[in-house]
From TrEMBL:
Belongs to the nucleotide-sugar transporter family. SLC35A subfamily. Keywords: Membrane, Sugar transport, Transmembrane, Transmembrane helix, Transport. NCBIfam families: nst (TIGR00803). It comes from Anabas testudineus (Climbing perch). It is found in: Golgi apparatus membrane. It is a multi-pass membrane protein. The lineage of its organism: Eukaryota, Metazoa, Chordata, Craniata, Vertebrata. GO terms for cellular component: Golgi membrane. It comes from the Eukaryota. This is Solute carrier family 35 member A4. GO terms for molecular function: pyrimidine nucleotide-sugar transmembrane transporter activity. InterPro entries: EmrE-like, Nuc_sug_transpt.
């Protein structure tokens, strides 16, 4: 090192290269070699990085596609369970079964990934308490949906519930500090409009006899019903944004975080189910379609936690909006629902919204 410094000094003072010791020539050779190594590393790692990105895009596409299919099949499956127009099972027991299945799968995943060491010591209350909030919010909304039916018709609820897209976007920006571009705001507006269009297009059943039978049913919503649906949309957005903040804010394995979430989910929904008076027993009226609903919603809840952990709550909105289209297609194929040309309007709006938001 001293020889090299002295060589640099001679070069600086005399303006000549020092060639007596050969130190400068060696350093120049080493520098050239290092440059070659860096260039070679960049060249060899670039295809590998591209391959990993391609694999990641494929994985996300499969995950989101599966979620859209499960979301879209939920309503047709519920229709298939009905007997004489009535749901034969206890809906609250179905929610408990879904939460219990998610809890057991999370526990199994924790065992398979070797994360059981976190269960040996009891977690602190400060660590676990935040996971109770989403369970309380979702349980509140589940009961609110039932209460709202007395103040509006189901079609009006379907239309006005699309306001949760706006509430989620506002809370996403305010609570998580994520500023949305103008094009992204326009995309979310299109997404909400697509939901409203799809809700209205589904009112045309193409069955005059059925329309005559349902002549007494009219679109209606009271002031109290409008207030309740606004509360529902705000709570829905708050639950999604809060869950995303908790999952991303703690450096814990996702399976362990899911375990905390679903412990509270089972406890709160279990208390709600057993405290409510119902003529049906806990598993009364269960059929293959009910078990398919439980399996689908279990998978959807676990996949949604992946989206909130590694993606964003806005992606959840696009999944729900796209699922409306799947719902309409499955209803046409399975239940004989007549699709109108107006159906192409929400399809185009959702496609344009996805382009504007993710471009």
């Amino acid at each position: 090192m001293q020889e090299w410094l002295s060589c640099r000094a001679v070069h600086f003072t005399n303006g000549l290269f020092c060639t007596t010791t050969g130190i400068c020539e060696k350093i120049s050779v080493y520098s050239a070699s290092l440059r070659m190594i860096v260039i070679q590393n960049v060249g060899t790692s670039s295809p590998e990085r591209t391959r990993r990105q391609r694999v990641k895009r494929i994985q996300w596409s499969v995950l989101l596609g599966l979620m859209v299919l499960i979301y879209g099949s939920h309503a047709p499956l519920i229709t298939l369970t009905k007997i004489d127009g009535q749901v034969p099972f206890n809906p609250s027991s179905c929610v408990v079964m879904i939460e219990l299945a998610k809890l057991l799968i999370s526990l199994m995943t924790l065992f398979l990934t070797g994360g059981t060491s976190a269960l040996y010591a009891p977690p602190s209350l400060v660590l676990v308490a935040p996971y109770a909030v989403p369970a309380i919010l979702y349980a509140f909304n589940n009961n609110l949906v039932v209460l709202m039916q007395a103040y509006m018709d189901p079609s009006s609820y379907q239309v006005f519930s699309n306001l949760k897209i706006a509430s989620t976007a506002l809370l996403y920006s305010f609570c998580l500090g994520k500023r949305l571009r103008l094009a992204q705001c326009l995309a979310l507006g299109l997404l909400m409009g697509a939901g409203v269009c799809q809700s209205y297009s589904s009112l045309d059943l193409g069955d005059p006899e059925r329309a005559k039978l349902e002549e007494g049913l009219r679109l209606h919503i009271t002031a109290w019903g409008l207030f309740l649906v606004l509360v529902y949309c705000c709570v829905s957005g708050l639950a999604a944004v809060y869950t995303e903040r908790v999952l991303k804010g703690q450096k814990l394995p996702l399976s362990l975080q899911n375990l905390y979430l679903y412990v509270f989910g089972v406890a709160i929904n279990g208390l709600s189910s057993f405290s409510s008076l119902s003529e049906k027993s806990f598993l009364d009226g269960y059929s293959w379609a009910v078990w398919a609903i439980i399996a689908g919603q279990t998978a959807n809840g676990l996949l949604m936690s992946v989206v909130l952990k590694h993606g964003s709550g806005i992606t959840r909105l696009f999944v729900i909006s796209c699922s409306m289209l799947v719902n309409a297609v499955l209803s046409w194929a399975i239940l004989g629902l007549q699709l109108t040309p107006f159906f192409l309007v929400p399809v185009s709006m959702i496609g344009l919204a996805a382009y504007l938001y993710y471009r």
